[in-house]
Amino acid sequence: MTNVKVYAVLTAKSGKEVELEDLLRGMAAPSRGEKGNLRYDLWRDAAEPSRFILDEMYIDAEANSSHRETPHFQNYVGKIGELAERSVYTVTAVDVTDL
Question: How far is C-alpha 18 from the geometric centre of its chain's CA atoms?
């Protein structure tokens, strides 16, 4: 199994900072409760307070895919476009033990 890490960088649209933060905070508990979720943390950019970073990790690609099918993720998808600009990066580890 290969863990899957997801970083999402979300910058609130003007006047949408509170709504964005509320939406993202609301995702934490149900996402952390999913089978296969190893991490779900929310960060705020110290230099740009309207920018948030989601830091997620799943046991494998299947768990990440299952996350995207949940009602809370579907709710997020339905709202995020009006609240923020976003970039999402899905990454896997590079083995550096032999370097």
Answer: 17
* Placement of tokens 């009602």 in the chain: 71
Q: Work out the angle at residue 91's Cα, subtended by the Cα atoms of residues 60 and 12, and round it to the nearest 5 degrees.
A: 110
Residue 93 is predicted with a pLDDT of 84
Residue 60 Ramachandran class (φ > 0 left, ψ -120 to 50 alpha, else beta): beta
68, 42 in Cβ contact below 8 A? no
The whole-model pTM stands at 0.89
Q: Percentage of residues in the chain with pLDDT exceeding 90? A: 90
Report helix, strand or coil for 18. Answer: helix
What residue has token string 């033990």?
97
As given in the structure block, the two tokens for residue 68 are: 């995207």
